[in-house]
Amino acid sequence: MKQLRIGLIGYGFMGRTHSNAYRKVNNFFDLDHQCVLQAVCARDEAKVKAFALKWGYKSVETDWRKMIARPDIDAIDICTPNNSHAEIAIAAAKAGKMILCEKPLSMDGPEGRKMVAAVEKAKVPNIVWYNYRRVPAVSLAKQLIDEGKLGRVFHYRAKFLQDWTISPELPQGGAGLWRLDAKAAGSGVTGDLLAHCIDTAIWLNGSIERVNGMTETFIKERTHTLTGKVQKVAIDDACAFLARFKNGSLATFESTRYARGHKALYTFEINGEHASIAWDLHDLHRLQYFDHRDESKLRGWRSIHVSDSDHPYMKNWWVPGLQIGYEHSFIHQVADFVKGLETGKPAGPTFRDALETQNVCDAVLKSAKTQKWENVAKVK
Ligand code: SOE
User: Is ligand 1 within 6 A of the CB of residue 264?
Assistant: First the structure.
């Protein structure tokens, strides 16, 4: 078996989901490559050593440049805050490494364009971790849409609601809280949460051409963990936008970290000429489907338990009827990435695909400032 030797940079929440995926993928998917946890890199030596021990990494580094220079590493996995994705990815591409990069791709579109240019120049396989595409129910939605079951699509509606930043006492910046610091994150809910909704939407329903957005920062100042000073909060706490897709359908998107009672409620609904689809991350193994072509007395919303062997990815897991969860979407992503290497048909979203999402985020944030409709820059 060939080896795919992984060098993971960053060991937070995403470092754990990815490590778990590399450990499990060969147990459940038949691949020609064995994923090997070759090295993990982070600045704190004691902590990175403890992480390596817990997850089974063979070695540690405290300087990502050293990790990239290592000849015994094939793929670099970037799990660091958003403001370091570009520098690491461009250096990794130059070193000829494959790259798996956490979302969002970059701080903004122009930075993302440089990353696309770097991986395409170096011809290195690349992918961005928009994991929700690979929840089996979401992949099933994609199949149904591609088979034409919905017919012409009229509406797309998506939300991603959380409530973890409501307290004004919560600081910004540093490990765990860098998502509140615009210098590290680029934006707030737009790049962190709506980017997921936009990625899924583009995948399911095609390109978004124009947007009109509004944002709000409810807590204007927070103590910065790194400086100890009270500083202006520059991220968007909430964002809602209207959008027009290239296929003529209309959309609404909403995200906030101030929806008391919601921890990670990602939902979408798509309404087509013949049928509608709805999905909810809190019930992630179900897909709701309504088909107007059903016999009228039996017509109604079906709640499909996406756990049968002919549902996407499910034949690799347990017996029909037994469901899987959030962490499996990452395992599926690794399986598809590796299959892409083996078949020569790269799995998405590639950096190029993820740049389209970045451009939508940029247009939304611009529109929130100009208070006008804005066109989404095209990926050239
Ligand atoms: C933020 O709380 C967060 O962890 C995002 O960064 C992830 O991308 C999302 O999947 C869950 O929420």
Answer: yes
CA 15 to ligand 1 centroid distance, Å: 13
User: Does residue 192's CB lie within 6 angstroms of at least one atom of ligand 1?
Assistant: yes
Q: Which of 140, 132, 147 is nearest to 312 (CA)?
A: 140
* Predicted model pTM: 0.98
Chain centroid to CA 116: 17
Which CATH code fits 2-131? 3.40.50.720
Question: What count of other Cβ atoms lies within 10 Å of the Cβ of residue 206?
Answer: 16
Residue ranges per structural domain of the chain: 2-131, 133-374
pLDDT in tens, 278-309: 999 999 999 999 999 999 999 999 999 999 99
Which residues of the chain form beta strands (DSSP E)? 2-9, 33-41, 59-61, 75-78, 98-101, 126-128, 153-161, 208-216, 221-223, 230-232, 238-245, 250-256, 265-272, 275-280, 286-291, 302-305, 374-375
- Superfamily for 133-374? Dihydrodipicolinate Reductase; domain 2 (3.30.360.10)
